[in-house]
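Sample entry copied in:
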Amino acid sequence: MFSLFKQGNLTIVGSNMIDLTSFLNRFPKKGETVYGRDFQQGFGGKGSNQGVVASLLGANVSMVTAVGDDAYGREWLSHYQNENINTDFVKVIENMNSGTAAIWVEEDGDNRIVITPGANEALSAEFVKEAFVKLPPANVVLSQLENPQSAILEGFKRGKEMGAVTLLNPAPADILKEDILEYTDWLLPNETEFAFLAEEAYDLPLDQFVLAIETFANETNTNLVVTIGKKGALLYRPHIDQEVQHLKTTKVTVKDSTGAGDAFCGTFAYGLSVGMDPKSAIELANAIASDSVQKLGTQTSYARGKELERIVAENLK
């Protein structure tokens, strides 16, 4: 049994985006203009979302990222500090805008997102290499695909050198550099992202989808956790699991699914950083992600304080 909010050390080589979110009754058709019901501006980006969740749970989080030399960039530095995230390795890029995400959310909670990476694209492998020389030791290094893969690969190489476990959330879906999986211990896609990586796994019945997970994991020698929305997550570890394990989640009313996958990844990374077994880490991640979809917004939807304590206490094993 773990005590609440045990500390782990987590380094995120990842992104930041200012979320510009419109809440709609329905998405517009081609050439159509529709009215929004509400609008929110907030902090997002997959890497930063995951870092905030891990920090809320008690991890010591260091962000290796890049922001623009603009008002959004200055807001980010202040926000990270407010969330107890180490900003020593946040690079400010001159003459570039910070990243933004234009988000549409329908009444049923479904979303569409367009990201403009801005300074995130300027995060270089050289800067990451220099950062890891000075970074505090990490149990886990976590990345996504909103930054150049060369920077992610460099972070994973340096992380492995220090004995860290490496986790990749391959989102947005993209073709992976051939050697990045060589340095990846855990791959955390959703079902659409996994289908993209496995090429022929689109629209498969569950039994065939499970077989595709086993095949991909065995061929790449990578541990897999595939999130499948309201159905929970699928876990498979080559040479350890006899079959894919399905860890279900609680049925809830969805208001806004934006950032739920990040809540899952950040929680799972936290769990591994404090020595939780993967199955227990997934169960906690399912619970925190399910809670987040019942509220509007991205980071604003993440449980805090007494609410977070309750969720952790109910799901900690």
About this structure: The longest strand covers residues 36-44.
